[in-house]
Specification:
The complex is a heterodimer of chains A (about 300) and B (about 290). By secondary structure, chain A is an all-alpha fold. Chain A has 15 helices and 2 strands. In chain A, strand 1 and strand 2 form a beta hairpin. Chain A is flat. In chain B, helix 5 crosses helix 15 and helix 7 crosses helix 9. Classes of the chains: A mainly alpha (about 300), B mainly alpha (about 290).
């Protein structure tokens, strides 16, 4: 309370120096919590990650400096290579499938607005707020062999070909099953995000398009798409960076298997670090994830610069 | 753009055939059903015995049995997990939002070369994936004896949430008229008083958004709790569900279905209660972020 009284005096009574000191004290006091949090729980661990990635280190014994050996070993390791391929395959298909699908749904919800569409939006978004453990639980419920819903339905109708498909256990199919579940869970957010941006488009533009005789889908493709291309690219970057970090859903659904079919960089990192106690290797994977997401984020920012609307 | 203008933009299309409308609405409903049906299907199985379920999975249950729920409840023990999750959520809010609001305020209103440098350091933190620092974070927490404690999860979550919310608060405080703060200062209010009495109440929309989304983020966290928590009675809800997933298979379908219902219930109830807020919050975040 002393402090308030001190500050309670009119500003002009105080010497400039004292005011400056007060402002500096105030700034420091207000910045301290955030800076401390980041310094201790982010920047210190980042420094450690770079260091560890150059070491042969496990939970026990001494760490030995080995330079870039961890990285060399990673990139010649078959598991890591397939993880890398999976992650980029995932990123590619999320951009190619999830974004157009979300755009289609979002635009339909706006263009065919009726009493029901607001409710539908809330339903789509529900899948996005379900935590991944629950999504994985529902995914196994649908896809499990013999007892799962799909197997059960195909047996009911005697669709032997479908009954034989092992959605989570067949290395050729597992990736797509997990991807399907992820699409189910993730597009709710994209839909809401794209809808928000479509609704920002001034009504005059649409009326002009209508006067020129454009129907809804011509309007969508020739006018809406170019206008919201920037938010769409942000989602694309979110998709790519999200794939690099992907862990929860594949880990819970398949554990990365069968074989390496659904291994992601996140899963390999977790297994190296917390199952095999190979701290050095896990840290090197962390650095790779960081550098790759940095590249895509920088790309996003340079796009943003070009658009000239950096906020 | 203000709400009235957005409202005007929502005006309906005049042209277009009713036929395409029917088709599109049909597709939209089908897609919505694909979200709802997996959540409803478990009810088909929960009242059956295991035998009944494997012979007649799609018939109506012969009688209503609640024993599967009881069994699933003891297997998943979600109650303790739910309490832990709520503690983590509240802790994450308490450790994320105030530091972010305070720092965002300084970056918006007390700019100098030093604060700009600090701001860019914090901004950089927004792009650091938590996966990158998993190992050192775990080691750090064990040095601070924070492993296997909820504060360990809370503090780590907060550190990775603060950058984003600092950015949001900064742009929010920037958008507020500066005259208000100046007027308060001329009236003799100190820096602290100006912030807590004038500026923070004005930033309420940002605060509501932050509280809501930090809550959701902490609620769905899996990776951090997975690496930091070991003992059963500290497990969060997600860990409990994952544990059930790994320990009990789908082969006991009625029990699995009951567990799925129990696992999804808290989230769905919260969503039904708060979906307006959640959607509005996401929209605001989407347009600002």
């Amino acid at each position: 309370m002393d402090y308030d009284i001190l500050l309670g005096k009119p500003a002009k009574d105080k010497s400039r120096k004292k005011q400056m000191r007060e402002i500096i004290f105030f700034k420091t006091f207000f910045l301290l919590p955030a800076v401390l949090f980041l310094a201790v729980f982010m920047y210190y661990p980042i420094k450690e990650t770079f260091q560890l990635s150059m070491m042969r280190a496990s939970g026990l014994g001494e760490s030995v400096f080995i330079g870039f050996e961890n990285y060399v070993r990673l990139f010649t390791n078959e598991e890591f290579q397939s993880g890398l391929i999976n992650v980029f395959r995932w990123a590619f298909w999320s951009v190619v499938i999830q974004i157009p699908l979300s755009f289609f749904i979002a635009f339909s919800l706006v263009a065919y607005r009726n009493k029901m569409t607001n409710g539908l939006r809330a339903v789509y978004y529900l899948a996005s707020v379900l935590p991944s453990a629950i999504v994985a639980m529902l995914g196994r419920f649908m896809f499990a062999p013999n007892f799962g819903i799909i197997a059960s339905i195909s047996r009911k109708f005697n669709w032997v070909w479908l009954d034989k498909v092992d959605f989570l256990g067949d290395p050729r199919i597992a990736f797509w099953s997990v991807f399907f579940v992820a699409t189910w869970a993730y597009i709710g957010f994209y839909i809401v995000y794209i809808m928000a941006n479509i609704e920002q488009i001034p009504v005059d533009i649409r009326e002009a398009a209508e006067l020129d005789g454009a129907n809804r889908w011509q309007y969508a493709i020739h006018i809406v798409l170019p206008i919201i291309s920037y938010p769409l690219r942000i989602i694309a970057v979110l998709c790519v960076v999200g794939s690099l970090k992907l862990f929860d859903l594949p880990y819970l659904l398949t554990g990365g298997g069968p074989g390496h079919a659904t291994k992601t960089l996140g899963i390999i990192l977790y297994q190296q670090g917390f199952v095999n106690w190979q701290y050095g290797k896990a840290a090197a994977i962390g650095v790779v994830i960081f550098l790759l997401s940095l590249i895509f984020t920088v790309a996003q920012f340079s796009w943003q610069r070009k658009e000239g609307d950096i906020g | 753009m203000n709400d009235a203008m957005v409202e005007k933009n929502k005006k309906d299309f005049r042209t277009g055939s009713w036929f395409s409308g029917v088709i599109i609405n049909g597709i939209l409903i089908l897609l919505a059903l694909s979200v709802i049906i997996p959540l409803l299907l478990p009810w088909f199985f929960v009242f059956k015995t295991r035998l009944e379920c494997s012979y007649n999975p799609w018939s109506l249950p012969t009688q209503i049995r609640w024993s599967n729920f009881a069994e699933a409840w003891t297997a998943i023990r979600i109650d303790q997990g739910l309490i832990n999750t709520v503690i983590v959520c509240l802790g994450a809010i308490a450790c994320t939002v105030p530091p972010a609001a305070m720092a965002g305020y300084i970056f918006a209103r007390y700019r100098s070369k030093v604060t700009e440098v600090i701001f860019y350091l914090i901004l950089a933190g927004y792009f650091v994936p938590i996966q990158m620092v998993l190992i050192p974070l775990y080691k750090l927490c064990s040095q601070l004896s924070l492993t296997d404690t909820l504060p360990g999860v809370i503090l780590s979550l907060a550190a990775f949430g603060i950058p984003f919310w600092t950015i949001i608060y900064r742009s929010f405080f920037k958008s507020l008229p500066g005259e208000l703060a100046e007027a308060a200062r001329i009236d003799g209010a100190g820096h602290m008083v100006t912030f807590f009495r004038i500026m923070l109440p004005l930033a309420k929309p940002a605060t509501v958004l932050a509280v809501l989304l930090v809550f959701i983020g902490a609620w769905s966290d899996y990776l951090l709790s997975l690496i930091l928590l070991n003992s059963q009675d500290r497990f969060t809800m997600q860990l409990r569900i994952a544990q059930f997933l790994n320990a009990y298979g789908v082969d006991h379908m009625p029990r699995y279905a009951a567990a799925a219902i129990i696992a999804a219930a808290p989230t769905i109830i919260l969503y039904i209660l708060g979906h307006r807020w959640i959607l509005r919050g996401t929209l605001a975040g989407a347009l600002k972020g």
